[in-house]
Amino acid sequence: MGKLGRAPLVAICTAAIAAVYGAGYVATEPYAHRVSPGSPPAAPQPHRGEGEAGAASAKYRDGVYRGSGTDQIGTIDVEVTVAGGRIAKVVITRCDTHYPQSDIDPALPDEVLKAQSANIRFVSGATLSSFAFAMAVQQALDEAKNPDSAGGGA
Length: 154
What we know:
Residues 34-60 are annotated as: Disordered. By secondary structure, the protein is of the alpha+beta class. The chain has helices spanning 7-28, 107-115, 127-145; strands at 63-71, 74-83, 86-96.
């Protein structure tokens, strides 16, 4: 080592680690309320637009609806099929993110089918992709709830 020894190197490395940690916190903190798979289930929360008495038997209009979600790492497009007023199928039609579609598919579409909403558990390690997916599904479901929507054809 040079005249200064290890102290400056340790200080620089410590500062770099702190910067990476801080950046990670800033990037993921807005999504901290989401639960990742394997976590204990949270108490069910009513979804936007649901009454206090719970969901009606036919929550959505039948048809195929499309949505798109975008975040800092890319865009995810989905197609949501509603049959009998319930979500019957969710397909990721485009996944243009830094991570492969296999990181979230079929885990997230299956979560939507279970929850019958976009309020799903995120995939750990794919938080931003999960968020973009949930936004895309919510956009499609908002269309399925809107009686003035033109997207109800199969």
